């Protein structure tokens, strides 16, 4: 199965049902009055974490999700049926970002966790709601509120406690296959691993943790070279890094240079990654020259003083299984004392630019005025357009109510200030009317 860890989708919540204009006309009932009911609420779209999913593959061919609209109101004051919410399942570790604003909306990591990504519109009010002593028989009804629409980016960052990093063909997949039940592809050529592989490590003392074999990094990965840039994001969630270095000498790469290259790529991507506990794991120690190469590596590491806190060195041979048990026990010990690290992209709580989960009113003006192609005045803006969409223009009283709402918003004064004169044409979306001073 293909591994997909980034995708853009469009989500559209259902609009509310329209309220209706209706009057009670029954035998032996005098002065029946307004009897139109409200519309039902439109369905929202809710992202829900499903621990059974491991990839965003389901979104590769389905990119548009639309919830149903609410039903219209009925006579006898009956409210229209509200639509069910649409649940969209996503894997654990998915970050949700608004494509238009770049704001991170949610980071969903817990099984069953839910997030309302777009809210359904409320139902429009029927004419029963507008009856007053001064107007006991109103011919006013609202259209349903439009459902919210968003284009979002889903980004999967695998949930692993321990990440295996290193140049290609240093033995990461082999180590994962031996200490877990995972079956990654293993072969004697670079970039055998094309997707992250996960496995569960269970120790004899009852402790367990999730280990991820991440595709091989090469120099320049943080700038887009090779496969590394596609999967560096998955390192962000790991709490302990096992840095495998080939000590066999067969690939003609200097172990210390390899160590510095990989850490430089981690640093370029996110400097905070170097603050995480890191264990250097010299691999292939069963080869003839490995011991000599390891001794030289230790000397260069001590002299270079590359990292502020010199990492532990725990050599292993995956083939002979030498050193595996001490490595896994030490890794578990570090996990016991290492808290989860905050996401690189997530903002701190007191950051004024953070995107809140609630859909709050913004500070944008209610409307803007511009000049159209034919010289007409064009009113635009999310708030005023929403107000128009909820106006039932089939009834004169509803249109007059809309005119009063525009006046109360200051539209008349703003048009005069802009130079509008009596008889000028004014447009809102596809609706046009004459300005009357």
From TrEMBL:
Boundaries of every OBG-type G domain copy: 160-336
Subcellular localization, as worded in the UniProt entry: Cytoplasm
Top EC class, one word: hydrolase
The protein's required cofactors: Mg(2+)
Family matches, as InterPro entries: G_OBG (IPR031167), GTP-bd (IPR006073), GTP-bd_Obg/CgtA (IPR014100), GTP-bd_prot_GTP1/OBG_C_sf (IPR036346), GTP1-OBG_CS (IPR006074), GTP1_OBG_dom (IPR006169), GTP1_OBG_dom_sf (IPR036726), OBG_GTPase (IPR045086)
Subunit record text: Monomer.
Listed name of the protein: GTPase Obg
